[in-house]
Amino acid sequence: MARQLGAFAATLRGLCSASGRGAGSDEVVLRGLSFYARHGVLPAEAELGQNFVVDLKLGCCLQRAGTLDDVSSTVDYSAVYREVKSVVVEGRRHQLIESLATDIVERVLEKFGQVHHVDVFVKKPQVALMGQLEYAGVRLRRSRVE
């Protein structure tokens, strides 16, 4: 039995590593990561800060994790959270959420080799406009360059 499982695992590794995409449309989704930070164009945004909400979709092969039920076969959600928090809260101050989203994408692709594409949605709920809206946001989708 152990030998069969080992052979099966090797086959799965081959499927995932051959293209880096495995089953094709697998994604890990992290939604509603909320951080307080000081990004924005206006001086008051730098001084007072505000909330930012980040949603992520991480494209990666989940075939092995789904079959083997082994946490080491997937993306470590807590590590992704820590990296995103580092960019949003502890990283450089951004005037534009477009720039903030770009830094998040670049960090995720840099730190998590099994991720072949990142879809990030950064929302800024408290927008200084002369009207009401739920949030302003940007969505970026970037793929790893091979």
Return the average pLDDT rounded to an integer: 87
Please mark out the parts with pLDDT under 50 across 5 or more consecutive residues, or reply none.
18-23
Write down the overall geometry.
elongated
Distance between the termini: 37 Å
Strand order of the largest sheet: 1-2-3-4
Number of helices: 5
The biggest sheet amounts to: 4 strands, antiparallel
Structure classification:
alpha+beta
* Fraction of helical residues: 40-55%
Strand content: 25-35%
Radius of gyration: 18 Å
**What is the element string, with H for helices and E for strands?**
HEHEHHHEE
Number of strands: 4
Brief overview, please?
This protein is of the alpha+beta class and 146 residues long. The chain has helices at 2-19, 43-48, 63-68, 77-90, 97-111; strands at 27-37, 50-60, 115-124, 136-143.
What topology emerges from the helices and strands here?
Elements: H1 2-19, E1 27-37, H2 43-48, E2 50-60, H3 63-68, H4 77-90, H5 97-111, E3 115-124, E4 136-143
Antiparallel strand pairs: 1-2, 2-3, 3-4
Structure description:
- The longest helix has 18 residues, at 2-19.
- The radius of gyration is 18 Å and the shape is elongated.
- The termini are far apart.
- The chain has five helices and four strands.
- The model is unreliable at 18-23 (pLDDT under 50).
- Helices cover 40% and strands 27% of the residues.
- With 146 residues, it is α+β, with helices and mostly antiparallel strands.
- Strands 1-2-3-4 form a four-stranded antiparallel beta sheet.
